[in-house]
Amino acid sequence: MKIFNCEFPEDRLYYKEHARIKKEGDLLRVGVSDFFQKNTNEIVFVELPAAGRNLETGKPFASLESGKWVGRVKCTVGGTVVTANNELKDFPYLLNESPYADGWMIDVTPLDWNFEGILFDLNKDDQLKAFTDFLEAEKQKIAGMSK
Questions:
Q1: Is residue 17 part of a domain?
Q2: Structural domain total, the chain
Q3: Residue 117 falls inside a structural domain
Q4: How many C-beta neighbours within 10 Å does residue 98 have?
Q5: How many CA atoms within 13 Å lie on the side-chain side of 111?
Q6: Strand 19-24 to strand 27-32: parallel, antiparallel, or no bridges (unpaired)?
Q7: What is the CA radius of gyration of the chain?
Q8: For the segment 111-127, what is each residue's pLDDT rounded down to a tens digit?
Q9: Nearest 10 degrees: Cα torsion 94, 95, 99, 104
Q10: Residue 34 in contact with residue 6, Cβ under 8 Å?
Q11: Which of 75, 76, 82 is nearest to 109 (CA)?
Q12: Which residue from 15, 48, 87, 124 lies 20 to 30 Å from 104 (Cα-Cα)?
């Protein structure tokens, strides 16, 4: 699905901090959204947590740098890191070129599988509208920062 010229595959759930998850068996694959990568420009550095690290919902788990931005990515759900995509250390641009495939960041064993009220499911009309409204507000915020 396209929203504001950005791709949002409907088989994922989206977090208000621009991270997203996809269920992969008994794990969750965490990454960033197309909207995020397009608005940060080319990502040049990625630091990911090691396997075994415990994560908390809403707390930072990764550091990213682009020519435009330096910051942390917040975790969509609490759990334990099983695998980190170490390819991103040498090829951080994968987050830009392939945010939903090769640019995944970590696999997590979640503490809880109930994402109601935390993540947006674009297959539900009310959540799609809320997510679209959220993205519109983000666009306005970004436009205001560039002035």
A1: yes
A2: 1
A3: no
A4: 14
A5: 11
A6: antiparallel
A7: 14
A8: 988 888 889 999 999 99
A9: 90
A10: yes
A11: 82
A12: 124
Tell me the residue range of the domain where 44 lies: 2-111+122-145
Per-residue pLDDT tens, the chain, 147 aa: give them: 999 899 999 999 999 888 899 999 999 999 999 999 988 889 999 999 999 999 998 899 999 998 878 889 998 889 999 999 999 999 999 999 999 999 999 999 999 888 888 899 999 999 999 999 999 998 888 777 655
CATH number of the domain residue 31 falls in: 2.40.50.100
Q: Which residue has the tokens 């965490």?
A: 30
The predicted pLDDT at position 69 comes to: 80
What is residue 143's predicted lDDT score, i.e. its pLDDT?
78
Per the CB < 8 A criterion, the answer to whether 76 and 119 are in contact is yes
Q: Which residues contact 63 (CB under 8 A, 6 or more apart)?
A: 45, 46, 47, 70, 71, 72, 73
Global confidence as pTM: 0.90
- Encode burial over 67-94: b for 16+ CB neighbours within 10 A, e otherwise: eeeeeebbbbbbbbbeebbeebeeebbb
